[in-house]
Automatic annotation (TrEMBL):
It comes from the Bacteria. It comes from Hartmannibacter diazotrophicus. This is CDP-diacylglycerol--serine O-phosphatidyltransferase. The lineage of its organism: Bacteria, Pseudomonadati, Pseudomonadota, Alphaproteobacteria, Hyphomicrobiales. It is a multi-pass membrane protein. One of its GO terms (cellular component) is endomembrane system. Keywords: Lipid biosynthesis, Lipid metabolism, Membrane, Phospholipid biosynthesis, Phospholipid metabolism, Transferase, Transmembrane, Transmembrane helix.
Length: 300
């Protein structure tokens, strides 16, 4: 005869955890917990669509799809935190989506566009860039965020973030779209391959780059000029999208040495050595989801 009071091990939580998850699975899931995942999946679809556009020779659409995926990648983590819908599942989904959209897709677009002219060397360059994106994401996923990290370090990324790296590596394709008559000659393919490898190295390097996360407020007297500048830039982007994308990319690459200089100046001011640098790798992986949400919010 079984006992009315079965033995209970307070350290055996597997059964209770399984029962709790099963009960939770039968309930309804708030829409707010699903929205960030839908944005991530949309970015993934755009990355895969860019690969298809490259196979069809539609490089304008391929570049546009990757740029739009980068914009969505910057939104999903912030929306998840705003809706309190962050979770480990959403973090892993975002990381896998980033590898496809900002690692595989740019590499295949570049190989289809020009790198195939140098055959194996071009394919090796594409492989190195895709692997660099994977290594960057993997490094972030196993990286423990430091709670006592100085506030000034939040202004920097360690290396070039994956979305920025994907847009930067597509600069040759972007420039080719500015002049529709221009066709990259075979002699340019080795230069493109070397440029692709350089961007891949920057992604996995420890070179500090500006993050822009902790930008300060806007002075009241500059609000109206800022609105005018925004309208001007929006109009130029709509009418000259590839020209503006090329200009922004060149400015970003030119700011990398400035970010390195600013980091060295601040690190010297605060007495930080290289071994003490933890760094924030940005929004290209799990968007600070290591802090963990409450159990009711683990749907993303």
């Amino acid at each position: 005869m079984s006992s009315f009071f079965p033995p209970f091990d307070p350290f055996d939580k597997d059964k209770d955890e399984a029962d709790r998850r099963r009960r939770r699975g039968r309930g309804r899931l708030p829409i707010r917990l699903v929205v960030p995942n839908l944005i991530t999946l949309l970015a993934l679809c755009l990355g895969l669509t860019a690969i298809r556009m490259a196979f069809e020779g539609r490089y304008e659409q391929a570049v546009g799809a990757i740029v739009l995926a980068a914009l969505l990648d910057g939104l999903d983590g912030r929306i998840a935190r705003f809706l309190k819908a962050t979770s480990r599942f959403g973090a892993e989904l975002d990381s896998l989506s980033d590898f496809v959209s900002f690692g595989c897709a740019p590499a295949l677009v570049l190989y289809s566009w020009s790198l195939h002219d140098v055959r194996s060397f071009g394919w090796i360059a594409a492989l190195l860039f895709a692997i660099a994106a994977a290594l960057r994401l993997a490094r972030f996923n196993v990286m423990l965020l430091s709670d006592d990290k100085p506030a000034w370090q939040a202004n920097f990324f360690v290396g070039v973030p994956a979305p920025a790296g994907a847009i930067a590596v597509l600069l040759p394709v972007t420039l080719a779209q500015v002049d529709r008559i221009f066709v990259p000659p075979a002699i340019a393919a080795p230069l493109v391959a070397a440029y692709v490898i350089l961007i891949g190295v920057l992604m996995v390097s420890r070179v500090p780059t500006f993050s822009g996360k902790k930008m300060g407020g806007i002075r009241r007297d500059l609000v109206v000029p800022l609105f005018v500048l925004f309208v001007l830039l929006a109009g130029l982007t709509v009418n000259f999208p590839f020209e503006m994308l090329a200009i922004v990319t060149v400015i970003y690459l030119a700011c990398i040495p400035l970010g390195w200089r600013a980091w060295n100046r601040l690190s010297s001011l605060h007495g930080v050595v290289d071994e003490d640098v933890i760094g924030d790798l940005g929004d290209d992986a799990i968007d600070e989801d290591f802090d963990g949400p409450p159990e009711d919010d683990k749907a993303r």
